[in-house]
Structures are given as structure tokens and as C-alpha cells.
Amino acid sequence: MVGRSSLSARSPTPENDHRPLPNQNDESLKHAPKAAATAQQARRQLCHSKGLEIKVPSAGSPSPTTAFIHTPQNYHREQAEGREKTAAILVPGNEGGVLGPSSIYLSIADKLASLNRGIPVLRLDHRFPARTKYCVADVLAAMNYLQNGYAVGRFVLVGWGFGGATVFTAAGQDSRIVGCATIASQSDEADGIEDMARRALPVLLIHGTEDSILTADCSRRLSERYRNASRGGEGEMAIFEGDDHQLSQKALKAEEVLCDFIMRLAGEEVGDEERTQWLQAQLRDVTN
Description:
Number of strands: 8
Domain AB hydrolase-1: 108-201
Organism: Hortaea werneckii (Black yeast)
GO molecular function: hydrolase activity, acting on ester bonds
Shape: globular
CATH architecture: 3-Layer(aba) Sandwich
CATH superfamily: Alpha/Beta hydrolase fold, catalytic domain
Structural class: alpha/beta
Number of helices: 9
Largest sheet: 8 strands, mixed
CATH class: Alpha Beta
CATH topology: Rossmann fold
Strand order of the largest sheet: 1-2-4-3-5-6-7-8
InterPro entries: AB_hydrolase_1, AB_hydrolase_fold, FrsA_esterase
Keywords: Hydrolase
């Protein structure tokens, strides 16, 4: 199978007008469809989720992008003071959005923020998708927002498709990023992965073998680049046989692998019961 290596926009300059962003008050975008019922069954408190507007510095006046933040119900800034807190930022693909492949971003955010020792998660949209310069600016603005408002000093980034270029480029620019995971990443505009390797920062690459948009060879090339530049870092690759760009066949397994990666970097552990009742639960509607 011969596929593309990039989903980046051909023109690096965005149009004058911003694309329509999600409604930050849309209740359907705040939690996974089955999260509340599953939380009740597992006898746990579902995390708090809200939409917000993040101002991104730009020439002239700042321009906003939309995001949804998931925080533990008992999370307060003063509780995080004195202990370096880690958050995850989930970055979209070339079309933007806040759901991720097969809507797993909703599930991951609910799961991690609802753990007994929850991890804040921000699902980020982009003002100008598929343009690395602007998407990286969105990520850095989101990091500053979380640092200033939630006392977060360490970040794990997750990117889908084009989002791989975004997270690796951001990691090459900002030392607050302690690891990156990608789903079906492109291999172009991803030089930051080599910088991560030289700094021994962990990387997780997930890809389906039947991805007809960005083939699994993209992640294999990224893995080789990381390995060649590595100075002792952990470079992991998870190849999902028979799966596509959306990971529609093994989305639940992808959620589990990504949650484990983020929890490990955040220094959080869960017991067997919490894993079975919550992390392995299907919070999304299955449509295929």
C-alpha cells in the first residue's frame, strides 16, 4: 500500500477568517456518551468538564481557540501547589475538532480525570488546522493556560494524524513537555522527534496496518529516526493489525494503551479493580 506521508496544508498561510470552532457550551461535547452511567456503576465520581476559550498570541490582538478541559471533581489549584502536576493535551488531526479518532479523546479525558488520583486533560481544537506553525502556537498557549490556572508544570501530548507534526514540533521547542504519543502520525514536519530522542524523552507511536490515509510506514520511519538519535529514551510502537486511520476496530485497546502511557509519565498508578471497572470500560457508542 502506497500512502501519503503528510496531511499538512499546502499553503502555510491561513485564510483571513477563522474556521468555525465547536460551541464550548455544547453538552454533547463535554463527556463520553456512556460516562455518567458507567461511573455510577463503578461507584465513582465523574470528572468535571467544561468548554473554554484560550487566547493565542498573534500579530495584533490575540485570537481565540476552543478547548474542553476535564478535571477531577476535587481538583483545586491550591491542592496542586507544592507538587508538580502533569496534564495531558489531546491534539486533533488535519481537520481540527475535539473528539479524536473514533471519539476516543472524549473517553480518555473522562477516564484519566475520573481516576482516584485524577489527571487533568485538555482536548484542544485548532484555529487553523494542518498548519504546523499555528497549531504549535495553539498548543503552547494551552500549556500556558494550564500552568497559570491549574498549576500544571509537566505535559504529555497526544496527536492524531497531522497532529503528530504538531506535538513533535512543540516538544522540540518547550522543555515542559515530558513525552508524546501519536495515533496514525504523519512522518513529515516531525523533526522534533529526534530532539526528544536526544533528550531521552519517551515516545509512543500507534498505527493501524490498514490505514489508507497515512500508512503504518510513517510511524515506522518515525520509530527509526527516534532509535537512530536515541540516548537511552523509551521509544514504543504499537501496530494494530487490520485497523484503519480512525482505529475503528481497536479503539478501546488504543484508549488503554494511551492511558497507561500518560499515567506512567504522570507517576500515577491504578489498582486492578479501578482498571477493570473504569479504564477498560467502553464509554463511547459503538457504531461499527
